[in-house]
Recover the amino acids of this structure.
């Protein structure tokens, strides 16, 4: 993915210069602070070649810093699965590894740690994994134990109830709490109309089958569809609402957003951020080979460094409710981006926080499983008052409200991506980034003087 993005970036630069749009690159420079001076934005930068601070002045700025990770220097604890070669060099062959998370990043981690083996196609059309002589064994842990659904084909079904017009109505009149309830009611009504039967939501939220069986079913559904036409109905329904789900999310009251974040975010992204069939087939082969296992932690669990065993321990209840404890010498945190920008230790982020540009406040949220605390307890009901930090933006334009000029693009500061999480539900998803960037480009292009 990194090489793909590098190639696209270089291609965009060539295209811009071909259109006589000047592009200047400043590699090995780090922006450490920004400030607005009337119609200009001043950037403070460090260069690898000099200890002096270099000053740039520009008409407008786009903050697109991407993901960050909070550094954790505990022995044999990897605070991020990237770069992949760090895992391969730091975790020896034959090791047992715990991966925190079951998302797309966690799957990539499992594929990386087993990349010393090979896959062959079976006569039935599936994949079989042939391990190396001393393979690593990977255990994926999450509260629900849900893997991303497998991407199938989208059909021609058109939503009748879950539509933009219905969302607008649900956001007017009553409280935002009613809007949340109405959204779920509309989703249920739409799926029941599309499938012609009632939906078993308990099976969606907490499947009774083991993760390997659920993954195999999802792969078959993606390959053959869940209707005669070979398409997947629920993916067809969901595809139509994703473009405006961020608008609905942005209008939720804080209590409703907290409820959604705690109870439904993982389920939403399990269905919205699907995995390609190739990865799903490889993961299933690894599970069949006994080298990858998915473990559901449940609502109450404990993760901590166990000095007596020189490893990391997970205490939780198994599927039968019996107390269980697992110990691993190596742990990889693949949960993805932290919600709060206050966990970004970069000088730029810290200066923005100190200047008061980051909105923060005590918000009830689950305790971070990968906290530095040696004794972490997590429950769906036990919460911790943590700070939720985000750059407050205008979702229509992407402008950072406290940093931008109010009436002109000159002196405007924009932000996209991880810095806007907490306001933009799909902030780090590809289509979400495209939508945010398109809105910024639209404002800039409309404000510039054009010769006719």
């Amino acid at each position: 993915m990194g090489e793909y993005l590098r190639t696209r970036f270089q291609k965009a630069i060539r295209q811009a210069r071909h259109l006589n749009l000047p592009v200047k690159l400043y590699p090995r420079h780090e922006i450490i602070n920004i400030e607005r001076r009337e119609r200009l934005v001043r950037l403070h930068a460090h260069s690898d070649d000099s200890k002096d601070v270099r000053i740039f002045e520009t008409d407008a700025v786009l903050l697109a810093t991407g993901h960050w990770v909070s550094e954790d220097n505990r022995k044999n604890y990897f605070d991020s699965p990237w770069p992949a070669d760090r895992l391969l060099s730091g975790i020896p062959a034959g090791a047992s590894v715990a991966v925190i998370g079951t998302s797309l990043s966690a799957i990539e981690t499992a594929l990386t740690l087993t990349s010393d083996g090979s896959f062959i196609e079976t006569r039935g059309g599936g994949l079989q994994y042939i391990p190396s002589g001393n393979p690593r064994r990977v255990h994926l842990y999450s509260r629900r134990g849900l893997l991303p659904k497998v991407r199938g084909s989208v059909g021609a079904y058109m939503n009748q109830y879950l539509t933009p017009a219905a969302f607008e109505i649900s956001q007017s009149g009553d409280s935002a709490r009613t809007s949340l309830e109405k959204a779920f009611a509309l989703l249920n009504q739409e799926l029941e109309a599309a499938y012609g039967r009632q939906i078993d939501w308990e099976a969606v939220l907490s499947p009774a089958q083991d993760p390997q069986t659920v993954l195999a079913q999802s792969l078959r559904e993606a390959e053959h569809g869940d209707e005669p036409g070979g398409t997947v109905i629920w993916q067809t329904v969901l595809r139509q609402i994703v473009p405006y789900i961020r608008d609905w999310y942005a209008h939720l009251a804080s209590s409703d957003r907290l409820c959604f974040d705690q109870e439904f975010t993982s389920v939403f992204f399990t269905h919205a951020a699907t995995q390609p069939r190739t990865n799903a087939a490889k993961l299933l082969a690894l599970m069949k080979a006994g080298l990858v296992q998915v473990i559901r932690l449940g609502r109450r669990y404990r993760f901590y460094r166990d000095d007596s065993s020189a490893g990391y321990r997970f205490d939780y209840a198994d599927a039968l409710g019996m107390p269980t404890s697992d110990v691993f010498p190596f742990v990889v945190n693949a949960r993805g981006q932290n919600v709060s920008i206050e966990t970004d230790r970069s000088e730029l982020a810290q200066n923005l926080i100190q200047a008061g540009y980051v909105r923060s406040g005590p918000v009830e949220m689950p305790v971070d499983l990968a906290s530095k605390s040696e004794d972490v307890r997590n429950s769906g009901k036990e919460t911790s008052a943590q700070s939720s930090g985000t750059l407050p933006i205008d979702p229509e334009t992407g402008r950072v409200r406290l940093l931008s000029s109010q009436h002109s693009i000159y002196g405007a500061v924009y932000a996209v991506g991880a810095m806007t999480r907490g306001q933009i539900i799909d902030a780090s998803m590809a289509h979400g980034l495209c939508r945010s960037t398109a809105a910024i480009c639209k404002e800039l292009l409309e404000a510039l003087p054009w010769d006719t």
